[in-house]
Write a structure and sequence with these properties.
The protein has 10 helices and 5 strands.
């Protein structure tokens, strides 16, 4: 059986070969389920799950690309330049708990982005977590003046789904649990697929605009990525998937 990252190189492609997106995801459920939605008859979306965060994610992606002919492991300057093959790494900042670990995490986060760019790998990062991108489908965060942690995202998403108009039967079932929360109740495979993702897709256009506003705000400050909080670049990947796949979004 062909592995999802075993992609044909230029010389092996036929004229009608689909554009292929190889997306290395830190997460096992939310991110893969979300991105797989954008696959159409025009593009293939190959998602590789559980690829860790920051530098480890990029190293894993480079190793896979070396093994499958997308990079030349003998050439340190080799970059991915295959026609119709788009390699992305999606990961979070994942802020640590102690000052010493935070300092190391900042270096790992910034350097991982630079290393990916040097290799032609595109990055969809979120600071602090992917749930920032999820939350942007519902509310605007451009007025925040201080860094935000994933606890804020989880708390806000919990409130939103508790008050959602016309909840589906699946959501009503999930809400019956006394300790319902977004983190504990909606990140599982089925609940994210059937409860969360439909809500995100119908709000995707506004999420794209909100993410662009956040990114522009921080880019004007000319600061390192780890200082760009709250910020995400997931919108660049989603825009590319929509452009190449031509998925109809109402």
């Amino acid at each position: 059986m062909e592995k999802p990252w075993e992609i044909k190189t230029n010389s092996e492609r036929n004229a009608d070969t689909l554009a292929t997106f190889i997306i290395f995801c830190e997460d096992q459920n939310s991110e893969p389920i979300y991105f797989k939605y954008f696959e159409t008859s025009k593009i293939k979306v190959n998602v590789i799950k559980d690829q860790k965060s920051k530098l480890e994610s990029i190293v894993n992606a480079i190793c896979h690309c070396n093994e499958n002919g997308l990079l030349d492991s003998s050439d340190p300057k080799s970059t991915i330049d295959k026609i119709d093959t788009y390699v992305w790494c999606v990961f979070d900042r994942d802020i640590e708990e102690t000052p010493a670990k935070v300092a190391k995490g900042n270096v790992s986060f910034d350097n991982s982005i630079q290393l990916a760019q040097n290799k032609g790998i595109q990055i969809g990062w979120s600071n602090d977590s992917f749930e920032l991108w999820v939350l942007l489908h519902f509310i605007d965060l451009d007025s925040l003046e201080k860094p935000v942690s994933r606890k804020y995202y989880y708390d806000e998403l919990t409130k939103i789904f508790k008050k959602l108009n016309n909840p589906t039967k699946d959501l009503e079932k999930a809400l019956k649990y006394p300790n319902f929360s977004y983190k504990d109740s909606l990140k599982s495979d089925n609940n994210f697929r059937y409860i969360v993702r439909p809500q995100l897709i119908k709000n995707i256009k506004v999420a794209l605009k909100r993410a662009e506003i956040l990114e522009r705000y921080f880019l004007k400050q000319n600061i390192n990525p780890h200082l760009m909080n709250p910020c995400t670049t997931i919108h660049h990947l989603v825009k590319q998937l929509l452009e190449y796949g031509q998925k109809e979004i109402s």
